[in-house]
Amino acid sequence: MTFHWMQIVYALVSLFIVLNVGLVIQGIVRKIGARLGRRYGIRWYQPYLDLFKNYAMRSTVSHGIMFYLGPVFRLSGGIGLFLFMPVIYGSAWFQNFSGSGDLILLAYFIFFGTLGMALGAGEGGHPYSAIGITRGLSQMTAAEVPLILAIIAIAVQYQTLSVTDIVAAQQGSILNWTLFTNPLATVAAMLGFLGSMMRSPFDVVLAPQEIPIGPPTEFHSNFLAVLQTNRAIFPMAKTILYVNLFFGGATNWPVLIVKVFLLYMWPVFIGVAFPRFRVDQSIRWFLRIPALIGILAILFI
To answer: pTM above the 0.70 mark?
Structure first.
């Protein structure tokens, strides 16, 4: 594929759009969660206010270079995942750099941010960091197993690792979507999606109810702002990847936003309907039912 410098401009534009869509969806989802709990909840634009406030703050605390690089690695994983896959199929403007990467590279980017975050938190010096890192990496690894099995299944099915080619193979009819041509792979990936989104019932590793020992305390001020930026981009990038692999991709922005929103609500619905799992319960669950379905998806192609 021939490189043109305008690709950089288009990629930055699409990244800006996805960042804003991610922040708005964050606000809407938190509002929905509050209303389900009979609370008023935050304003939908509260994520913007939090982001601006934290970017304006500076920290006087230093725990070493790796502590600084942890949030940077985390954000790099989210941006890298987004930039190496097509956003709008058939659009010359919003293909990003999909011709320079494939599913194996995207799988690396999915795990890259988590690993960098673990290295940074480990240098923070908090006595509970090692426990949090161990739990987080264990759960994330277990949650990625069904997704990797599903990726292997569709790579064998479509005989390619190119996301663009996989989206192209699903065009023409809704029945060509991987959802219908390989439902087992889709189910395995969607169950793994629950864990990778780090929402209830798989959010114990983030300690959302134990803020004093959670990541928001370890990484505060502008460090936290970098993580909040990634929190808007990374889930969106993962959701767009799922749309591309299993739901026919998108040929324009309105279709993409609708598909992303509906897919984004899947872990939100599960989170408000089911209680939280312990880390050991989460790992056993991911390595049993979703992994078994992923293996069956490969065997029954």
So the answer is: yes
Chain center to CA of 265: 13
Closest by CA position to 196, among listed 158, 112, 139, 251: 139
Bond into 201 cis (ω within 30) = yes
Answer for the pair 109, 80: CB distance below 8 angstroms, yes or no.
yes
Query: pLDDT 10s digit of each residue in the chain, 301 long?
Result: 566 788 889 999 999 999 999 999 999 988 888 887 788 888 989 999 999 999 998 877 777 788 888 888 889 999 999 999 999 988 888 888 887 778 889 988 888 877 777 777 777 667 777 777 777 788 888 888 999 999 999 999 999 999 999 999 999 899 999 999 999 999 999 998 888 887 777 877 766 555 444 555 677 788 888 988 998 999 999 999 999 999 999 999 999 999 999 999 888 888 877 777 888 888 888 888 999 999 999 998 7
Residue 193, class by beta-carbon neighbours within 10 Å (0-12 exposed, 13-18 middle, 19+ buried)? buried
SS3 133: helix
CA 284 to chain centre: 21
